[in-house]
Design brief:
16% strand; alpha/beta; nucleotide-binding; hydrolase; 43% helix; ATP-dependent DNA helicase RecQ; 677 residues; seven-stranded parallel β-sheet; DNA/RNA_helicase_DEAH_CS
Length: 677
């Protein structure tokens, strides 16, 4: 990048964003992006990743398209941009058609510099048509670790982003994440052809964070929390604090207990309505609510500099989640504390979440059977409605998406296009006036549309097959693509209101001949391998909390931070030779986490009483007996699509063993089912 460009970026930094200088690795990333190079920015939580695309977007000639996994992230970043006068917008599922149409029209006219979308929107047929009409300079992928199946929250749809970049002719990409191990970084680089020199990392060492692990028995956890927070009970002493829990009911009970002890605390979780969540979050941001007891639904995109305490009341889901969550403390650089009230009691719930995603072998086989059937058809196309396939195969949505990605990677199927299976419209103009706007064959085509879209009261459903046949009979091109293009044009002109639903993904069956049982066994083994990797990830987290060496150093090493080398000090040499000097281990306290309380031994009578009603309902409604995996899911309170029509949650045995290890419950069931009679 030329000196003039560097100077221009610095002027933008000050004039638009109000910052006198770059932080950490920001300048290195901005320099690479403005120079036209694909780049990866691996920044610790709170290190300023967003500026790495926000500033270059103002220097690039065309639109910057930002893909983000969470609506909350988009909203927070959009609010920041709008406060600084940057022409930015987002598209999300909460917006009405008029708003979406206006935003897309602004982008077409070149009035937007930044457009934020979810990854799912890139499968939308209409949105993809729109992207082909717009010049895009940069594809930004927020939370980019989701690309990698080795990341802690792999999102299958993210795997398609490299293909989208090529499809829409986007010349460069910028990957942003706070939690990428060296293996994940290598995976990200390979998928987007990013040079090793164009990976910029700030490291994970934060010298203002005090990492503390306090082993606490389950029954003593709430008193320990109250005691730890006691110095800030007085209103003038209360500091901004986030307390993370696993379950919604825990958030409510802990917040209520703290309030009864005189703390200004509120619960925050996904079970609250959006208005309540927004009000609580705003109160926390403005300092009116000093303490939030929250599930991980809270915190993504939160940019509050003076959070002094982050407390984990329950175990986090992984080291990556822990790193993200403690990274919200002390963003202003002032000393802040991160307390883990650790015990192994929550491990069973976290492990069971992992086992809950494992598909049944018969579910995998059902999917493969559909593919084999489609492969025997002349077109070898397989249309997929995900919700319907999930229901029919009894595979939950996320594992189903992962299964489809694995089948792509095995070369069995390949995605070709996606479309909305259903469209409906409502006329805003008189139909006669609509026809009168056109002449010749185009007028005949519009008349054919009107005659063959039956209106019931005010809305009409578009029947593409009926239109195609009517067009063939009249010698008029009424193909699906032409019909959609015409209806979108009518909507853009304000002549109709157009709505679409039931997204359908169409795959090509590339291997029509395959051994269903052999492939089912292979895919099941791959699923079990990923399952074990997630269990190992949980064990690595426990190993971190029970570390006999510096916690900060162990955490940095996990993410490949080279500022701690061979057991030595941070690169700045300002800390003690063997550690950071500000974690519980460096304070002389090595944690030994207390185990979960013992549970009574299971009996045959327990099986009959707890599983019997589910087995009987399954037999009555489905005509078959459930397998051990399905019964184990029921007893451990792990959802399956088949549980909805069975109304399994209404049975008394549902979730009765959610605190027991899933493998133990399943082994007990298998032993019981193997007994004669």
């Amino acid at each position: 990048m030329t000196q003039a460009n560097i100077q221009g970026a610095r002027e933008t930094l000050l004039d638009v964003f109000g910052f006198a200088d770059f932080r950490g690795g920001q300048e290195a990333v901005v320099e690479r992006v403005i120079a036209g190079r694909s780049t990866a920015a691996i920044f610790a939580t709170g290190a300023g990743k967003s500026l790495c695309y926000q500033l270059p977007a103002l220097h690039l000639p065309h639109l910057t398209l930002v893909v983000s996994p969470l609506l909350a992230l988009m909203q927070d970043q959009l609010a920041f941009l709008q406060r600084h006068g940057v022409a930015a917008a987002s598209l999300d599922s909460t917006q009405d058609r008029d708003t979406v149409r206006e935003i897309m029209e602004r982008a077409r006219r070149g009035e937007l510099k930044i457009l934020m979308v979810s990854v799912e929107r890139l499968k939308n047929e209409r949105f993809r048509h729109f992207l082909r009409q717009v010049a895009i300079s940069l594809l930004v992928i927020d939370e980019a670790h989701c690309i990698s199946e080795w990341g802690h929250n792999f999102r299958p749809d993210y795997l398609k982003l490299p293909d989208y970049q090529r499809e829409f002719g986007i010349p460069q990409a910028l990957l942003l994440t706070a939690t990428a191990t060296p293996a994940v970084i290598d995976d990200m680089r390979a998928k987007f052809a990013i040079a090793e020199d164009d990976v910029v990392t700030t490291g994970f060492y934060r010298n203002n964070l005090e990492l503390l692990v306090q082993p606490v028995e389950t029954d003593s956890r709430l008193p320990a929390l109250v005691e730890w927070l006691a110095p800030q009970r007085a209103p003038q002493q209360q500091s901004s604090t986030i307390i993370y829990v696993t379950l919604q009911q825990t958030a409510e009970s802990v917040a209520k207990a703290l309030a009864n002890q005189g703390f200004a605390a509120r619960a925050y979780h996904a079970g609250l309505d959006s208005e309540t969540r927004d009000r609580i979050q705003q109160g926390f941001m403005e300092g009116e609510i000093p303490c939030i007891v929250a599930t991980i639904a809270f915190g993504m995109g939160i940019d509050k500099g003076d959070i002094r305490n982050v407390i984990h009341y329950d175990l986090p889901k992984s080291i990556e989640n822990y790193s993200q969550e403690i990274g919200r403390a002390g963003r202003d650089g002032k000393p802040s504390r991160c307390l883990m009230l650790a015990g192994r009691d929550g491990l069973r719930v976290l492990e069971n979440f992992v086992y809950g995603d494992a598909p049944e072998r018969e579910g995998i086989r059902h999917v493969l059977g559909e593919i084999a059937d489609a492969g025997r058809q002349p077109a070898r196309q397989w249309p997929v409605l995900l919700n319907a396939l999930s229901r029919d195969s009894n595979v939950r949505l996320l594992p189903l998406k992962t299964l489809l990605v694995r089948l792509e990677m095995h070369g069995v199927i390949a995605p070709r296009f996606a479309y909305l299976a259903e469209y409906r419209l409502r006329y805003l103009d008189e139909t006669a006036d609509l026809v009168a706007r056109f002449e010749g064959e185009r007028a005949d085509f519009v008349r054919l549309l009107i005659d063959n879209i039956a209106i019931a009261r005010t809305w009409g459903t578009v029947d593409f097959e009926r239109l195609h046949q009517a067009g063939a009979a009249a010698g008029i091109d009424a193909s699906r693509s032409r019909v959609i293009a015409a209806l979108e044009y009518f909507q853009d002109k304000g002549w109709v209101v157009l709505e679409g639903k039931r997204m359908t993904d169409v795959y090509e069956v590339r291997q029509p001949e395959f051994d269903i049982d052999a492939l089912a066994d292979r895919l099941l083994a791959e699923s079990q391998s990923r399952e074990q990797a997630e269990i190992d990830r949980l064990q690595a987290m426990l190993d971190l909390f029970e570390s006999e060496t510096c916690l900060t150093r162990r955490l940095a090493a996990y993410f490949g931070d080279t500022r701690f080398k061979h057991g030595g000090a941070p690169a700045d040499r300002s800390q003690a030779a063997q550690g950071c000097g500000h974690c519980s281990v460096c304070h002389g306290h090595v944690a030994r986490l207390p185990g979960a309380p013992p549970l009574p031994e299971l009996t045959d009578a327990d099986f009959t009483r707890q599983a019997g009603p589910f087995i009987e309902r399954h037999r009555e409604q489905l005509g078959t007996l459930p397998g051990a995996q399905r019964i184990a899911h029921f007893l451990c309170g792990l959802s399956m699509p088949v549980f909805t029509p069975l109304k399994a949650r209404q049975l008394n045995g549902f979730g009765v063993h959610e605190q027991r290890p899933y493998p133990d419950v399943r082994a007990w069931i298998e032993e019981r089912m193997a007994q004669p009679g």
